[in-house]
Amino acid sequence: MAAYLIRRLALVLVVVWGTATLAFFLLFLSGDPVNLLLPLDATPEVREQFRKANGFDRPVWQQYLSYMGRAVQGDLGISLRNQTPALGLVLERMPASMVLAGAALLFAVVFGVLAGVIAAVRKGTTLEFVVLFFALLGQSLPVFWLALMLILVFGLELRWLPISGYGVGPLPGLPALANLVLPAIAVGTFSMAAITRLTRGGVLRELRSDHVRTARAKGLSERVVIYKHALRNAAIPVVTVIGLQLGNLLSGAVITETIFAWPGVGRLVLTAVTQQDFPVVQAAVIVFAVLLAVINLVVDLLYGVLDPRVRYA
């Protein structure tokens, strides 16, 4: 177990290094950084001063080594617009993104697993058809369209929920629950649909297995058979998808955060791209790479908890 964990941590470091390298060279693949970061009417003197101040007058390999040396120390550059550390800006917005992703994942897991179990148990009935229809619909609807429809129906027509902003929550730093509902549903619907279909397939497969038939022969109640034996053994692929979806929810909420004026990292990155503030974009990419690598590691370790037959060689 210890050797496996060390190898996985080494792979995490490799992934983060590769992502940081890619983020660095993407800036140069886009053209001369000075032309990208300065307005078109900047004078040659200003351009030359900017080039020297940011080290763009040195060879690329020297700039890369300097960038990686600072990154190891937690220095991912200075925002060109705010003149503050780029990493600090990203980490300042990260709690809002994590709250939104967590709420969306909770919505997706609770309703997705429940709907998947119902569809598996009620196989061949109208209820299964309805669940699969909405699961397919949830994976087909564009996120931006769903977000706009939620705003139109529940925000403007019915006036049940606020349509934008973070609000003031019951605890410091947390949003108001009413402000969280619509963004979480918009972000989590696709994940809920994916979890529903995967849970249904896994539970159906387990319900036909020998150990479930043995559990029923022992006289166990159907509820115990389904949730303790069938669902638990079908949970490994579901946990894998949940881990992947959490990564997608964290890194892919740019559109939703923009539509709902949610003060998260996604909205920050979109603003940084618009303003050509590349240090902020690079910092966000590296932070998300670290989060995704850690999430994948945690998911792998959960396999042994869910299935004792899993061994880490």
From TrEMBL:
Signal peptide residues on this chain, from the entry's feature table: none
Domain called ABC transmembrane type-1: residue spans: 94-303
Major place of residence: membrane
Pfam families attached to this UniProt entry: BPD_transp_1, BPD_transp_1_N
GO biological processes: transmembrane transport
UniProt subcellular location: Cell membrane
CDD domains, per the entry: TM_PBP2
PROSITE patterns (alphabetical): ABC_TM1
Domain of life where this protein originates: Bacteria
Gene3D superfamilies: MetI-like
UniProt keyword list: Cell membrane, Membrane, Transmembrane, Transmembrane helix, Transport
Membrane-topology descriptor: Multi-pass membrane protein
Residues that span the membrane, as ranges: 9-29, 98-122, 129-156, 176-195, 234-260, 280-306
A cellular component term, taken from the record's GO annotations: plasma membrane
InterPro entries: BPD_transp_1_N (IPR045621), MetI-like (IPR000515), MetI-like_sf (IPR035906)
Sequence similarity: Belongs to the binding-protein-dependent transport system permease family.
Stated name of the protein: Glutathione ABC transporter permease
Organism listed in the record: Meiothermus hypogaeus NBRC 106114
